[in-house]
Task: structure prediction
Amino acid sequence: MSDTSATAEPRATPARTTEAPVFELSDVDFYYGSFRAVRVDNLVIYRNQITAFIGPSGCGKSTVLRCLNRMNDLVPEARTVGRVLFDDEDLFAPDLDPIEIRRRVGMVFQKPNPFPKSIYDNVAFGPKVNGRRKGLDDVVEQALRKAALWDEVKDKLKQSGLSLSGGQQQRLCIARAIAVQPEVILMDEPCSALDPISTMRIEELMAELKNDFTVVIVTHNMQQAARTSDRTAFFTAEIDEVSGQRTGRLVEVGPTSDLFTKPHDPRTEAYITGRFG
Result:
């Protein structure tokens, strides 16, 4: 599904006039051991908007995404240096529970990964882990409705989630993330393993989800970024002439329509017009 050879006409829903920051990153470096993997000088992600991360492979998009719910904490020797705020709080403050952060900031991965459980139990799993015992039927139904899956599975909730098609499995994973009532949903190339019709369903779903959630998506498909997002951040990889190591760098971020039609940085223009990457 990736397409980096042509510029798509942006048609994302216009951003809301009142922009409230959810994440604010400034002077941030992400390290794996002594290796600096990516640098972000300044990045703001706004509430109830879709923000897309684009750029060539190896430029740090997924590393930055995983920082936002502290999943990088699970990687040996990974560390973050700099200022990362989540709802005006230091995301890496010692008294902030990473597990609670991951409840508030859900994650949907590149490959659908339903649990080997029933459709119902996949969605109910998170609420149960968080101590919810009553009203689970309503929680499951509402999450499946928000994931645009209820009508397709309401009569087979006891069937395995693995019995669904790839696109349905991905929407089940979105429902599973929604069920714990997060504030933010992170999506790491959620359509790369899906066919065009399933991709369209996920894109339509994202447009609905931003009414209730903040969405951040990593995508290699620039047309997808242009179609779905309110704001786009372009990353590139800088190569050290001595060591040959690649370090990701945030080049620019702005309203999607502006970034695709009048980017400020020539590196962004070169990428979106297919001259490199």
In short: The chain has one domain: 21-272. The domain at 21-272 is CATH 3.40.50.300 (Rossmann fold). Residues 34 and 124 are 41 Å apart (CA to CA). DSSP finds ten helices and ten strands in the chain.
